[in-house]
Amino acid sequence: MSNRHTIILMQTSPSRATRTFMDYDSISQAMDGVCGLYERKLKDLNPATGNITYDIADLYNFIDGLADMSALVYDHRVRAFLPYDRQWIKQKLFQHLKKLAH
């Protein structure tokens, strides 16, 4: 995944006050960031567990459980950020994790 500036927008609950964003230099770094966000949540929920494992379905459930998640990815051809929904994020996560597994 090329070095395309990527902003992940998310809202953790229906409250607008939970809106936030994470800024990355590439799609790949953004996918690492989403995984890291989920891993931190798992550690917060299971502080006594040393080694936490999860599968892609768990990660998808986490994303689906958020009030909102989307991405803005910079496209150099049009010199603008293009919006992508949570389904796109899940597809990119799958591709990213599959690449890391090989």
Number of helical stretches of at least 4 residues: 3
Task: Give the total of beta strands.
Answer: 4
Low-confidence stretches: none
What is the residue-mean pLDDT, rounded to a whole number? 94
Q: Looking at the structure, what is the overall shape?
A: globular
Helical fraction equals 40-55%
Q: What is the succession of H and E elements?
A: EEHHEEH
User: What summary fits the major beta sheet?
Assistant: 4 strands, antiparallel
Distance between the termini: 15 Å
What is the percentage of strand-forming residues? 15-25%
Within the largest sheet, what's the order of strands?
Answer: 2-1-3-4
Please identify the structural class as seen in this structure: alpha+beta
User: Gyration radius, to the nearest Å?
Assistant: 14 Å
What do these coordinates show?
Keywords: Cell cycle. The chain is an alpha+beta fold. It has three helices and four strands. It has helices spanning 27-45, 56-65, 86-101; strands at residues 6-11, 19-24, 68-75, 80-84. It has a four-stranded antiparallel β-sheet. Strand 3 (68-75) and strand 4 (80-84) form a beta hairpin. The longest helix is centred in the middle third of the chain and has 19 residues, at 27-45. The two termini are 15 Å apart. The mean pLDDT is 94.
